[in-house]
Amino acid sequence: MGEIKLLFVGSQSAGKTTAIATVSEVNALDYGEFTLDTGQKLRCYAATSGQPYSYLAKGTFNGLIILINNAGSDPIGDIARYVDTFRELISKIKTVIGITHLDVAPEPELPSYHNYLREHQIQLPLMAIDPRSRSSIMALIKRFQ
Ligand SMILES: Nc1nc2c(ncn2[C@@H]2O[C@H](COP(=O)(O)OP(=O)(O)OP(=O)(O)O)[C@@H](O)[C@H]2O)c(=O)[nH]1
Ligand SMILES: [Mg+2]
Fold first, then answer.
1. Mutate which of 7, 8, 17, 24 to test ligand 1's pocket (most atoms within 8 Å of Cβ)?
2. Which domains does the chain carry?
3. What's the chain's average pLDDT?
4. Is residue 102 scored above 70 in pLDDT?
């Protein structure tokens, strides 16, 4: 079984850097790696919001994670923007949307996101996650195994 390479993108302070640091055994800024119980190795890369997506040039990813900060000024608009920016990659690799900061910003609630995705025929899984929680990130990563 090969390695899994995951790319984390998404809105400002959504928790991309935190998500990787939470689960990684080896961690440099915005890069982390760890081995699952199954022996499978994961390499995770986080983009920084506002920076050019230089990681995209670094080769082939097996999965894309779009993190959306629910405490941002327009989180549903953020989904629209990230789905548009990454539409080519999304068409090629498994992609999951994770909504963060729901503990401090409970609105919009998840049904609003599901409605938005349905209305725009965007068929991507969406889940609430807390990047500070190991079990939460592992549940997300399970989607890529
Ligand atoms: N309360 C709360 N804090 C969170 C959550 N997710 C992340 N944080 C905090 O938000 C802050 C920003 O997290 P980062 O991991 O730096 O966010 P980022 O997506 O890497 O941000 P950029 O690199 O600036 O794009 C940190 O202090 C995290 O601990 C969450 O779900 N709830
Ligand atoms: Mg970061």
1. 17
2. 3-144 (3.40.50.300)
3. 93
4. yes
